[in-house]
């Protein structure tokens, strides 16, 4: 797929498919269209009591798009990864075009966790997350869901459902249900970077209020 471009990649997301590589050193890329799709319902994110307490006491700071490429590198920095050089370069290009974003967790000047994904219409296609500190990826996910809610996104696509995502409220839906949700989201408009960056305490406060309604 040497002719793969950011424009082709966006069209693929609009059709409900996404790219992967077998491993970081494999130059080829293949398309994936799961029969069962992982999604994170934005109104049913599970903020556990222990995570809420940890966020209130945490010294971490949130930011968005401060080091997008650093988040991608963090996600690829593991024994097995589907992020090869071509995929990394494509997401960097999408970021420069305003179609890929990162939610980041910082400890001082060190990037210690984050999640990144692609945006199209009111859909956020979550790609990967990483953590270098306890709870950092969970904190990034909570902050991401809070931002997507406030920015009026309607679909948070997680591609697959892992145990980690299930513990946070993630679900698995059929391909046909997913395509219906995708069609609805693509007909709408939302901007990831339209809001100021929140503190962890603000995120917890909003999520706690939402769960009590």
Sequence-ordered SSE layout with sheet pairings:
Layout lengths: L5 H10 L2 E3 L9 E3 L3 E4 L9 H9 L3 E4 L3 H9 L8 H12 L3 E8 L2 E11 L2 E9 L4 H15 L4 E5 L3 H5 L3 E4 H12 L13 H12 L2
Parallel strand pairs: 7-8
Antiparallel strand pairs: 1-2, 3-8, 3-9, 4-5, 5-6, 6-7
Helix pairs in contact: 3-4, 5-8
Short description:
39% of the residues lie in helices and 24% in strands. The protein is an alpha+beta fold and 213 residues long.
Low-confidence stretches: none
Q: Strands of the biggest beta sheet: in what spatial order?
A: 4-5-6-7-8-3-9
CATH homology superfamily: Leucyl/phenylalanyl-tRNA-protein transferase, C-terminal domain
Radius of gyration: 16 Å
Describe the structure.
The chain is of the alpha+beta class. It is about 40% helix and about 25% strand. It is built from eight helices and nine strands. The protein has helices spanning about 5-15, 50-55, 70-75, 85-95, 135-150, 165, 175-185, 200-210; strands at about 20, 30, 35-40, 60-65, 100-105, 110-120, 125-130, 155-160, 170-175. The strands form two sheets. A seven-stranded mixed sheet has the order 4-5-6-7-8-3-9, sandwiched between helices. The protein has a two-stranded antiparallel sheet with strand order 1-2. The mean pLDDT is about 95.
């Amino acid at each position: 797929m040497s002719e793969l471009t950011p424009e082709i990649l966006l069209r693929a997301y609009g059709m409900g498919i996404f790219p992967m590589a077998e491993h970081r050193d494999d130059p080829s890329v293949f398309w994936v269209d799961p029969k069962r799709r992982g999604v994170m319902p934005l109104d049913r994110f599970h903020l556990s009591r222990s995570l809420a307490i940890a966020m209130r006491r945490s010294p971490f700071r949130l930011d968005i798009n401060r080091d997008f490429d650093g988040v991608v590198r963090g996600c690829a920095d593991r024994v097995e990864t589907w992020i090869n050089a071509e995929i990394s370069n494509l997401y960097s290009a999408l970021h420069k075009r305003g179609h890929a974003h990162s939610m980041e967790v910082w400890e001082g000047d060190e990037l210690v966790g984050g999640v990144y994904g692609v945006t199209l219409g009111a859909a956020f296609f979550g790609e990967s997350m990483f953590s270098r500190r306890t709870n950092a990826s969970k904190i990034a996910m909570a902050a991401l869901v809070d931002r997507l809610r406030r920015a009026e996104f309607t679909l948070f696509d997680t591609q697959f459902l892992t145990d980690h995502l299930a513990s946070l409220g993630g679900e698995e839906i059929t391909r046909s249900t997913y395509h219906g949700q995708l069609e609805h989201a693509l007909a709408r408009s939302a901007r990831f970077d339209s809001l100021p960056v929140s503190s962890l305490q603000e995120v917890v406060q909003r999520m706690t209020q939402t769960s009590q309604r």
